[in-house]
Amino acid sequence: MLLTASLVLIALLVAFGPPERVLGVHVRVVYLHGAWVWTALVGFAAAATTGAAGLVLRRRPLQSWSESLGRSATFFWVTYLPISLIAMQSNWNGLFLAEPRWRLGLNFAVAAVLLQVGLAVLARSAWASGMNIAFLVALVWSLANAQQVMHPSSPIFSSPSLVIQGYFVVLFLSCLLAGWQATRWLHPSSS
Questions:
Q1: What are the pLDDT digits (tens) for 126-181?
Q2: Whole-angstrom distance, CA of residue 35 vs CA of residue 125
Q3: Is the dihedral of CA 9, 15, 19, 23 positive or negative?
Q4: Measured between alpha carbons, how far is 57 from 27 in angstroms, rounded to an integer?
Q5: DSSP 8-state symbol, 148
Q6: By 3-state DSSP, what share of the chain in percent is helix, strand and coil, each rounded to 5?
Q7: Which CA distances in Å does 128 have to 78, 102, 134, 188?
């Protein structure tokens, strides 16, 4: 129920987001794209951190949360890709699929899905914790070394508009709330 409410809140925020001088109202999908992908990144970082704590402390419950966080983050990562396609089409009238960060996102989406399926089949929380750490390291390293063509380093926070910055923070926090609700829904204790 809370996950649905979070998604409705996100939809309303996107529908009424502030327009931008250059992109107009089409920037709203760009805002969503940014908040959604950052939710995935925070989820992957939380999965790795929780997994590392679970391994070091030998706590199976932490390892189990790492599994759920990794699955939720994968959902957000995979679904940010179609949002990104909509952003490209609505703002630039075409799809630039050769864009380095788009290809990186697609490659890591495939890898994340295959990893999560493999971990589900294996059904070992300790392995999931270790692989979530390895996945985050590979993703962060790849993002740090990826060329930026259509992705300025910080378009929201380099904006002079405090309204846009504040709006994005609220949208991002709403996406994080949805991510947490999805994680709780995916966790075995919720069954």
A1: 999 999 999 999 999 998 888 776 666 677 777 778 988 999 999 999 999 999 99
A2: 29
A3: positive
A4: 45
A5: -
A6: 80, 0, 20
A7: 19, 26, 10, 14
d(CA 81, CA 25): 20
1 SS3 class: coil
Torsion of CA 34, 35, 41, 47, to 10 degrees: -170
Q: What's the pTM?
A: 0.90
Contacts 24+ apart (CB under 8 A), 89-98: 90/26, 90/29, 91/23, 91/26, 91/27, 91/29, 91/30, 92/150, 96/149, 96/150
